[in-house]
Amino acid sequence: MNENREPLPGAAPASADFRDLTLVEVEQLVANAGERSYRARQILHWVHARAAGSFDEMRDLPASLRNYLKQSFTIGHPVSSFVSRSSDGTRKLLIRLDDAEEIESVIIPTEKRMTLCMSSQVGCAMACEFCATARMGLHRNLTSSEMLSQILAARRELAVGEELTNFVFMGMGEPLANYPRLVRTLAIMTSEWGMGISPRRITVSTVGLVPMMERLLSETPVNLAVSLHATTNELRDRLAPINKRYPLEVLLDACRNLPIKRRSRITFEYVMLAGVNDSIADARRLVKLIGPLRGKVNLIFYNPLPDSPLRTSSRAAVEDFQAILKNGNLTATIRESRGLDIAAACGQLYAEQHIPA
Ligand code: SF4
Q: Would residue 124 show up in a list of annotated catalytic residues for this protein?
């Protein structure tokens, strides 16, 4: 993917943000301007490595080329309209877009990593019962430059010596429902002419858009996470209604046949909901469902929403659940809840800022 020589789909002509462009597109532009092709990498280096905010900063380009670019393109300036800092180091950003829509990104520090949780859409159409973003519905897809904006905005919030190490598309939206722009974004993130981020450090999380899962792993080298959350179709229909279209047996069958690269595995996300999906029977069913796959399970403490009856499972229940998975030879980790004091669950900060109680 890094050396993609074909134009990628998913450009955003309406925004005309230069950061939407791939190398092959910039080379075409440069040729149209009558300049040598090496100028393309020079411009992209300014945009992605040096985070230039305008063409005027690109002093080593001929003025005529800078003026040519300025006629058709801007370089967006992502602005965090609100930053909320947790006592555990988690930082949640609300980023204002040109049309005044806002998206969330979360910086999550752990002992060894500094992960950025990124959004792919404004809102979401997937209607998961436990999710604050679901309540917004889908406003629109993000462009690639808007997805990339989150990295720039997050880098501005880091302290000296801090660096983003991992990137997860697990924020607002279903990334695979915005597929062409997602793939374009991943190309820009991972290419040496773009941001140069290792694809091993990028994870795309889906609630289970089966046809697009296979496409993603065939076309990109990033990691995949699948939000499972239930072990019966009856419960998953309720928690994640996409299950009505792609029920558990279809989803897991697709996972079995995915083109997984050597040394990588699918992660199954499982949000722990007290009295809903956290019983011993659920854990045993999960072993049966996931056991034959080369997957690992991530058990997630739920960040409760203020007006929802759903509650997170107790620590004892989560640990008992984990023990059953481990006894069944599954790799099972517990993800501690981060940023509880800043409404860090996906879509929660947006809701607090925009939706009247
Ligand atoms: S959990 Fe993810 S897929 Fe489900 S509604 Fe929320 S943002 Fe969308």
A: no
